[in-house]
Amino acid sequence: MTTDEFVDLKSTTDEPTRVAPGLAYLRDRIVNVAFIGSFDGHDGPWLLVDTGLAGSVSRIINAAELLYGPDATPDAIILTHGHFDHVGSVRELVRRWRVPVYAHELEMPYLTGRSSYPPPDPAVGGGAMATMSRFFPRKPINLGTSVLPLPADGALPVIGGWRWIHTPGHAPGHVSLFRDYDRALVAGDAFVTTKQESLSAVLAQRPEVHGPPAYYTMDWGAAEQSVERLAQLHPSVVVTGHGIAMRGRRLERGLDELAANFRERAVPSRGRYVRQPAVADRSGVLYVPPPVADVVGRAVAGAAVAAIAAVALAAVRRRNDRG
């Protein structure tokens, strides 16, 4: 493994990793946030892309100050989409920084309290993360007037040289961000560089190109078209929503193979949205297909919850015994 293949040489998640001029990212447990804007110290504009899980505010602020200096404040926050692991800290950061949030207009129902996302699909299989997805939050948040639609001309606010690309499938208004001059890509969850359905893969963080997280992908046909569109851009380096940043030959081969063989490599053999997608518009979700039976997954999830509860109870008993 070399830096020509992937570009995260840190074992810590406390410091951001610079992957290209004016592009860095921070690994926040199971998800990434990105920073766009020059690091030359001239107090220029910069953007935060996504906000990680709940409880990530201090980690994100510390990373921003390492990149941009004390009391660094972005000019805006860009959301690739509104799933819980990408908006977990957005309300706290908006209150602190008092900056606008931008997202695609089709994500607005989930960011203004009007609609929940379609249910996750634990029947897709692939590992513990997929099995546990039945418990993941999907209710909307309400950013009120703080959230605005991305500019219709495809440009990013404030920062020149970058454009947003509508890449739906994983979410209705999912967007990816692209810089043409060096082909740097922030892909969100349009594709990722770890097998996000598998807890062991998430922990190992072995860099390899995969389709979007299957348990939350609501339209596989649209997801395939989005991957094909991104592959046609021939990105030189990518920061994805999950997994280690990648560049060079390994990225190019992996993304080309995923685009060419998407149905074999990314689409589950069974699942709620495999045969028909959920349908959504600017008002939110309009139709959700019926669930697929997942008796085994439900039993495994129940056992996992019971095990976690047993560990927590044992810890309480040990504290009481010491008391």
Describe this structure in words.
This protein is an alpha/beta fold. It has one domain (17-292): Ribonuclease Z/Hydroxyacylglutathione hydrolase-like (Metallo-beta-lactamase, Chain A, 4-Layer Sandwich), CATH 3.60.15. Helices cover 30% and strands 17% of the residues. It contains ten helices and 14 strands. The strands form three sheets. The chain has a seven-stranded mixed sheet with strand order 1-2-3-4-5-6-7, covered by helices on one side. A hairpin with a 2-residue loop joins β1 (17-20) and β2. α7 (220-231) packs antiparallel against α8. The longest helix is centred in the last third of the chain and has 28 residues, at 295-322. The radius of gyration is 19 Å and the shape is globular. The chain starts with 16 loop residues before the first strand and ends with a helix. The model is unreliable at 8-12 and 303-320 (pLDDT under 50).
